[in-house]
Hints:
- This protein is mostly helical.
- The protein has six helices and no strands.
- The protein has helices spanning 19-41, 43-49, 54-81, 86-103, 108-136, 143-160.
- The protein starts with 18 loop residues before the first helix and ends with a helix.
- The mean pLDDT is 82.
Amino acid sequence: MKTESLKADGSWNSSQTVYPILFAISISHLLNDLIQSVIPAVYPLLKSNYALSFTQIGFITLVFQLTASILQPFVGLYTDKNPTPRSLAIGMLFSLAGLLCIAFASNFIYILLSVSLIGMGSSIFHPEASRVAHLASGGKKDWRNQFFRSVETQVVQLVLS
């Protein structure tokens, strides 16, 4: 952190890029999206271990997508009006809880609850993470803001290939 980026009253100069925050939020975004990519990766295991049909696998996808994609704009609307930096940690905790639950799920209903927790974690995390990345970039809509999105895309593609 550069000390010249601090104002005399101790507040942060909003036009400066805060690289440590930008890097940390990008890594968090990467981890969140890696957690989401676990769900389709375990479909074959879930199908064989729980004797699930393709219809049930489809329901798992539906529940995950509904909670991750449909809920996210509503969370975004709320956090746009009421910024809540705690939602970054809350979203990751939901995702962690979902991962732990899916690891110990004993039946189809618990699997659905687990993927819904992961989806809710993602939908809670992303709007606030995007806001923090924008603030950390100093409000600039250039490579700094794209860094937040592109790091996870490149690494996820590398890990999955």
